[in-house]
Design a protein that fits this description.
Blueprint: E1 2-3, E2 9-10, H1 30-41, E3 47-51, H2 58-66, E4 72-76, H3 83-94, H4 101-113, H5 119-122, H6 126-145, E5 159-164, H7 166-174, H8 178-195, E6 202-208, H9 211-218, E7 228-232, H10 238-248, H11 251-257, H12 264-274, H13 278-289, H14 294-313, H15 329-341, E8 344-346, H16 347-353, H17 359-367, E9 371-376, E10 379-384, H18 387-398, H19 400-434, H20 438-442, H21 447-480
Parallel strand pairs: 3-6, 3-7, 4-5, 5-6
Antiparallel strand pairs: 1-2, 8-10, 9-10
Helix pairs in contact: 1-2, 3-6, 6-8, 7-9, 10-12, 10-13, 12-14, 13-14, 14-18, 15-18, 15-19, 19-21
């Protein structure tokens, strides 16, 4: 028996671990599955952080490893928005939620006496409820650990507690108001502190697609006190994608319906278009089984990815109502052009060349699942959210009517930016010429400093004027050209700027 308080005594039989259902006839992810299974069959030595792209097979791997094991609990965090929802999901996963009947009755009594009093104002905080759950779970895990083998290197079905989609949940909490964010951090710190103490008792797994969330967990001072095990989940390579498609495509069904079985070239074409993302491979296999040719199915998936990019990226849709994070069309178009020529671009290059240092706008596109952040060898890169989205980027750049309109918007934005900066320089030049800014701007500096400043401003003005003239010329050419598949700017000879950038 586990004693929660002087009045509440629970039986261990009432505290159950939910069994995770095994996936269907998906192909085992080879080495990744074996590595994860081997890891969980040995004594827990640290917190596992599993990171991979959306639809890359993280949930499948966890389900496969946790299937048919008795003491496992899985908390689905991906769609959770608040800490209260997390506490409820956590209670459902472990089969226990703390009882606050006495407090709830008192709150109900006060609510009847005081009109307008909200019950949530006096409800127990999320981290208090979580502490109650963790206290019970600690006692259960302690009793379970008594059945563990004494030898650390001996294989055994140790307890597993997984938080699937936790990276995205952390990102969602950061979009809350400052007050709610502070409360959320209290609960998260409570959870992480408990997880860091489970070494040798239970495997703790945080899984998610967001590289920022994984980095936040990896650098958390609470978790860093213990051992952190990174477990990346990557897309299939070409050979594994071929094998998976051959497994998923139903030969008998195609034979009955009179459709041909995909050739090697068809499968390679599909891989070049949609890559090795397991969810996309399952989708194209279902289309092939329905009688669609592999090439047509791959092209359809790329067009669908493009339609979503246009609707979300260029359609003016805001993310979630609570986020209030936006980006503009030029931000996304500059990023698309950069990624169309190469599959990954440095995070800093995109941040300052496409977004002018606007971190919130870049994060918004990641949150909207148009872009993703990938970390390699300690460096961060911006990539498309999926290989199908990457193919959509390349297709959008090749379609001239669309590119023409977006290029015109980009040049209008550049003209506005250059004009505003030139106006600021002109105002400062006027102040320096009239002597109004001498004392306030330069104090008691000599007139030579004023002359040097005016010279630097004049050089910058000439540079901006040349850039402005170039952008206006390109805009005029685009505006006057007919809407055809021929890009008029390619026929314009490239000229160097008459003034070097100061």
């Amino acid at each position: 028996r586990v004693t929660m308080s002087h009045r509440l005594i629970l039986s261990l039989r009432k505290i159950s671990f939910s069994k995770v259902p095994c996936c269907g006839n998906q192909r085992r992810r080879g080495g990744a599955y074996q590595k994860l299974r081997t890891l969980f069959r040995h004594a827990p030595s640290g917190v596992v952080i599993m990171t991979g792209p959306s639809g890359g097979g993280k949930t499948y791997l966890l389900n496969k490893v946790m299937a048919r094991r008795t003491f496992t609990a899985k908390v689905y965090c991906k769609d959770l928005k608040t800490t209260t929802e997390f506490v409820d999901a956590f209670g459902n996963a472990i089969g226990f939620s703390p009882s606050f009947n006495t407090l709830n009755n008192a709150v109900g009594y006060l609510e009847s006496l005081i009109p307008g009093l909200k019950k949530t104002a006096l409800a127990p905080a999320a981290h208090v409820q979580l502490l109650a759950m963790l206290g019970v779970l600690d006692s259960v895990l302690y009793l379970l650990s008594r059945s563990y083998p004494g030898a650390v290197d001996r294989e055994f079905d140790y307890a597993i507690i997984a938080f699937d989609g936790f990276h995205q949940f952390l990102e969602t909490l950061e979009l809350q108001s400052p007050e709610e964010r502070e409360k959320s951090r209290m609960m998260v710190n409570t959870l992480l502190g408990w997880c860091s103490r489970q070494t040798g008792i239970a495997h703790i797994v945080f899984a998610g697609q967001n590289a920022q969330g994984a980095e936040t967990l990896s650098n958390d001072p609470i978790l860093k006190k213990g051992k952190i095990l990174q477990f990346p989940v990557l897309d299939f390579n070409r050979d594994d994608s071929r094998s998976l498609l051959k497994t998923l495509v139903d030969k008998d069904q195609l034979r009955r319906t009179g459709h041909p079985y995909p050739t090697q070239d068809d499968i390679d074409y599909a891989y070049d278009k949609i890559g090795g993302r397991i969810s996309d491979l399952e989708s194209i296999a279902a289309r092939i089984n329905a009688g669609v040719s592999p090439r047509a199915a791959a092209d359809d998936m790329v067009r669908e990815a493009e339609a979503r990019i246009r609707a979300v990226g260029f359609g003016g849709q805001v993310l979630a109502e609570s986020s209030k994070l936006k980006w503009n069309t030029v931000h996304l178009w500059k990023t698309i052009k950069a990624l169309a020529s190469q599959t990954k671009v440095s995070y800093d290059v995109i941040l300052f060349s496409a977004f002018s240092g606007d971190v919130e706008a870049l994060r918004a596109l990641v949150y909207a699942k148009i872009l993703d952040i990938r970390k390699e060898d300690g460096k961060k890169f911006i990539v498309a959210i999926s290989p199908a989205a990457q193919s959509a980027f390349e297709r959008m750049v090749d379609v001239y009517p669309l590119r023409r309109g977006l290029e015109m918007l980009e040049r209008k934005a550049d003209i506005k930016k250059y004009s505003e900066e030139m106006k600021t320089i002109e105002e400062e030049l006027v102040r320096l010429r009239d002597g109004k800014g001498k004392e306030s701007w330069l104090g008691s500096e000599s007139l030579d400093v004023v002359k040097d400043r005016r010279k630097a401003l004049a050089e910058r003005m000439n540079y901006l004027a040349a850039k402005l003239s170039k952008k206006e010329t390109e805009l005029r050419i685009l505006d006057e050209s007919p809407i055809t598949d021929v890009d008029p700017l390619k026929s314009v000879p490239k000229t160097t700027d008459p003034v070097k950038k100061p």
